[in-house]
Design brief:
Elements: H1 2-27, E1 30-36, H2 40-51, E2 60-66, H3 68-76, E3 83-85, H4 89-97, E4 113-124, E5 144-145, H5 153-168, H6 173-185, E6 187-189, H7 194-202, E7 208-212, H8 213-221, E8 226-229, E9 233-243, H9 250-259, H10 263-271, H11 279-282, E10 293-295, H12 303-311, H13 317-322
Parallel strand pairs: 1-2, 1-3, 5-6, 5-7, 9-10
Antiparallel strand pairs: 3-9, 4-7, 4-8, 4-9
Helix pairs in contact: 2-10, 3-4, 5-6
Length: 324
Amino acid sequence: MIVRRLLLVWALAAAALGLAAAGASAAGGQLTLVAYSTPAEAYKALIPAFQKTPAGKGWTVSQSYGASGDQSRAVEQGLGADVVAFSLEPDITRLVRAGLVNPEWNQVKYRGIVTRSVVVFAVRKGNPKHIRTWADLTKPGIEVITPNAITSGGARWNILAAYGAQRKLGKSDQQAQDYLRELFKHVSVQDKSARESLQTFSSGKGDVLLAYENEAIFAQKHGEKLDYVVPRQTILIENPAAVVQTSKNRKEAQAFLSFLSTPKAQTIFGQNGYRPVVPSVLAKFKRYTRPAGLFTIGQFGGWDLANKTFFDPTNGIVAKVQHS
């Protein structure tokens, strides 16, 4: 009899705990976003907007920002994450190979891309050095700031923009490589991330900063005395995001990821300097004009080939031109 009563008490207690857990789950929890350095400002507005949706009610989002490559490697090595948002596709691909992201992550609308941008020249207010073209960056006395391609996705976009622009101008492969070699002679600082490079430029170092368009807009929005030039030949930057398969909150993580492609979220991205991926939202922002010589990563055969050709640490074009 006593044993039966104890079993009944335990059963009732277990049921109560189960109801409490269910209630806690229904009330929300915490998601972890691991992202590259530049969209922090946008997510400050995006997260409260997500929390106002039925799927986001009661959920908080902890955030980690840093150089895209570093963040990707950290997740690969065990840093907890529910959603990852990086500068470029290979940083997602690394996690696919590690079994942390579904191989079909990009088999969705907008191919898993949540924002777009272009490479621009951020210059001092009034553009005193008259920087307009890629050729201007290699004029005598011009000092260039760009991040380090080992750690920064932004740096890789910058390099491909510089090389691709030369090809768009009718230069040969060798001439484009020669241009990179000359350009790096003018680079004085290579920080770990695009955001750190912006900070270096804002401190007064350099004449021109190779940057995401959204970074230049961010700087202007926060009172930095700079202008920016969108070169006629530049690359379309595409920034991906994905759910981490080991997440204990995959349903909610997917809801957050899906929210990022809604008109509401894309409008917030647009207000923070990013080019929306939703055409109807992009059309509302008159500042985002299409450069005449815009090209994509497709010009290089996609990221797998571009990484091997340009960023192999031993035989890549960048390693060769920087050490020649």
